[in-house]
Amino acid sequence: MPPIEAVTFDFWNTIAHEPPGTMSEARRRAVAAACERCGVEVEAERLAESLEEVGRAQQSSWSQGAHFHPRQGAAMLVRALDLEGAAKELVAEAFLEAGRGAELRLAPHVAECLVALDDSGVRLGIVCDTGFTGGELLREHLDRAGLLERFSGWAFSDEVGHYKPSPQIFEAALGTLGAEPAGALHIGDLRRTDVAGAAAIGMRTVRYRAINDDPGAGTEAEFVLDDHRALPPLVERLG
Fold it and tell me: Rounded CA gap, 148 and 144, in Å?
């Protein structure tokens, strides 16, 4: 097989993770504050139920492989809250922007892994199912962490219009990297999306389980790692 020239990373639970409930709580606070600024009274219970309904709709679509754009979630929320006019626009924006300032934690040793791969000449990309926090916001998080410059390509689902394991999202990332599947490796935590999707188009695969050890049935990766520091030597051996 050809040497590995490009490595794509899943974002959530591979590059970074959120303390449990961080994003959902950030959205609740942001939407509640936007309603208050508009003079709209929304009971806390109704707001929580509406946000949970939107979350369930997104998760259902994701599990079926049907793309659910963050803007669809915002539109669903303002309908559930019966908002109109300026309040509708302000609450939708608050929902979509809530993840910008939320706390994210980097996976252990991922920074030194990225530096080692980048310095060795391997091209790096991201293939990410974004949920409600879009690619623009996630790039900002990477920039603040000093990691964005290490990546030369990416495919975020809200920008590509497809979730993993769709071949389109992996092909989009490889296209930005100028790489062919046979010369690329994908690392992520989920068998159904990361491993199966990458393997289906001919990429080499790694399952990273230090943050989330996916118990799901399905395709297992060629390699399973618990430490990002093991990835650069693996890529070198495959080369």
Answer: 8
